[in-house]
Write the C-alpha cells for this entry.
Amino acid sequence: MDRTLLLNSTYEPITVIPWRKAMTLVVLDKVEALAHYDRNINTARRSLRLPAVVRLNRRVPWRRPRIRFNRRAVFARDNHTCQYCGARGTSRELTFDHVVPRSRGGQTNWTNIVTCCVPCNQIKGDRTPEEADMALRVKPFTPYWLPENNSERVAATSELWEPYLW
Ligand SMILES: [Zn+2]
C-alpha cells in the first residue's frame, strides 16, 4: 500500500506512482486526492493522509506508455487469474487462451489472448467461448498501465482503486 493510482483530469487511470511522489503532487496542489489509505504522513507543517487515488487538477499532457504485449504483461493485466473460472495461479501454473481459436483466424494480441488455467484451457480446446459455454469474466483489452512491478506478487492493487480502474 505504498503506491498511489494516478488518474488524469477526466478520471482515467494513467499510471501508478510511489506515494511520496503523490504526496508531493498533493502539497503542490497539482492533484486532488480521491481516496486515502488509513495512514497519516507527517510533513513539516501538517499531517496528511496517505493518498490511495489522486486525480490531476488540470489537463496535463501525459503520454500514455505503450505496453509491450508479452506473457508477463498479460498475466499482470489479468491479475494472474484464469479469465474463465477465476482461479489464481503463478506464471508456471497458468497458460494462455486464444479467445477466438487460432484455427479460426484468432490473433495473438491483447484483445484475443487471456490468462487461462490449464484445466479450462483443455476443456475449451479449439472452440469459441460461446461454443464451449464458458463466459469470459472480463473482455480482453489493451491496457495502458500495469502495476509497476508486474511479478507474481503484484496484483495487490488496493481495493480503494477498484472504482477507478475500469
Ligand atoms: Zn480456469
Observations:
- The two ends are 20 Å apart (CA to CA).
- The helical segments are 19-27, 71-77, 118-124, 129-132, 162-165.
- The pocket of zinc ion is lined by residues 82, 84-85, 87, 116-117, 119-120 (CB under 6 Å).
